[in-house]
Structures are given as C-alpha cells and as structure tokens.
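User: Show me sequence and structure for the first protein, then do the same for the second.

Assistant: Starting with the first protein.
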Amino acid sequence: MINWQYFPKSDMAPKIAISVVHVFESVEARGTSNTQELPSNAVLAEAREGLQEIGFDVETGKSASDKIAVPVLFGQNGKLEKSFEADAYHRAHEFVIEVEAGRAVVNNQFLKDLFQACMMHGVEYLAIAVRNRYRASNDFERVVRFMDTLYASNRMSLPLKGILIIGY
C-alpha cells in the first residue's frame, strides 16, 4: 500500500504532488517494500516513465550526463558554482523528488535530502519516497513523525512551500 503525507498539514497538497503519488500507486505492485526489497535506483526506474509523463526530468543512470543537477550557487558572471543532484526535478512546478531505500532513516538520508532541497535554486516543493517497511522499522512513519515534530515545534522555518512524504 502506498502511504503519503503532505506538509504543512494545514495546506492541501497541490495537484502536482497528487500526480506524483498516483505515479507511485501505479507501480506499487513492482516497487512496494511490502513485497520487494529493491534498491532506490530500481524503485526510481519503475516510476521513471510515469514521472516523465507528468513533466519531470528523471535520473537515468550513474554517469554525470544521466544525473539531474539542480543549481545551488552562482559565481562570477552568473557561472554555476555549486549544484546538488536530484532523482527527479520538475522545473515548471519547482518540485524535486528523492527516492530512498534502506538508508533513508538508518543513515538519516531523508535529512540530507531536506537540507539539499532547501539550498536548491528554483525549488519550492520536495517529495521524499521511503520504504514503508525496512527491517523491523516503518521508515514512512518515522519520517512523518519527524516532519510532524519539525512543523509543530515552529522553531525552524523552511524555505519550501511543501513537503510530500511517500511510503512505498
């Protein structure tokens, strides 16, 4: 089962976020952590076509030309100085997607994804897809609980309009 939660909870998820959820729902049988233990790149590969159909540029491999670089810093004469890589990026909707597997919570990869999205130029929305189940942990619930705390504490303000957490 695909689970999802949009933040802030006081806002309705935008149409593009719902479209991303539908893509993951459409490949659920091939990519869910309830029946599969696919690495993140394999899950992304399952979702690639659907994400491309709704306008995302999607990473296709390991070489530099296959990756999606999103600008972070610009130097002298406007030259790109620093970028971070994203699994998928929709320029018009300013939406980045990161797909994680086993290290999403164990290695706090979801926090790195959050940090990088906050630094990216032209990014207003972030989706992080994590396993529902990883070993004895429900990674989706743990990431959602973290985001609940982040938003409820009101101690840190994020430059993003919204964050979508997807459990696959």
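Switching to the second protein now.
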Amino acid sequence: MKKKKKVTFGWELVLNLYDCNLDIISSKNKIQQYVNKLCRLIKMKKYGKTWIPYFGHKKPHTKGYSLVQLIETSSITGHFSEEKRSVYINIFSCKAYDHKKARAFTRQFFQAKSVKNTLLTRP
C-alpha cells in the first residue's frame, strides 16, 4: 500500500498588535490601504470588495472597525479596538505566503509598539 503524501491545507497567521496609532486604526481609509498593500505584498488576489463596518458600540473595548477581505485562497480578517489601541488580524490562505513579511508590514503599518503572533499550519 502506497503512503499518502501529506499535503498542507493552509497557513493562518494570528497577530495581536498593541499600542497602535489611534489615528490609523480609527480610519476606514487607512484600513483599506492596509488591505490593499498587504495583498500586494503577500501576492494574494482579492475576491470582491473589502468589508469594513464600524460597530461594537455597547462596550468601549469592542467599539471600532472590523474588516473582512476574501482572497482567492481564503481570507483576511481584523478587529480594531480604539479604547485598547489594539489590532487583531488573521491571515489565512491555502497558498503559502511569507508570514514574516506580513507580520513586519502589519506592525509597521499600524505603528504597533508590540506584537504577539502565532502561525498555525492546517494539515
């Protein structure tokens, strides 16, 4: 019996960014710029428009923008807490990408003073 070759389904980079620039994380236009530049950087093709709603008004720490960008190989999602000046980004793709570049770019774009990340491999 022949062994099946292990195939990776995808990779998900989970980023928690802290002490971000409030002017950037509270700007729909800046968040759109981030998505556009990130997709070019990691060579992902956007599928449809970026959805960037502003909500979470009932609790101060949840108030802010969220983003959803489908990409041809999965999605990029994010949540922005104005009160905490923090950003939570998930980049999931079935196509390999340079997660180190994505992490560095995201930290620099939002001017985060610190970042914690986890890279998940989905078998």
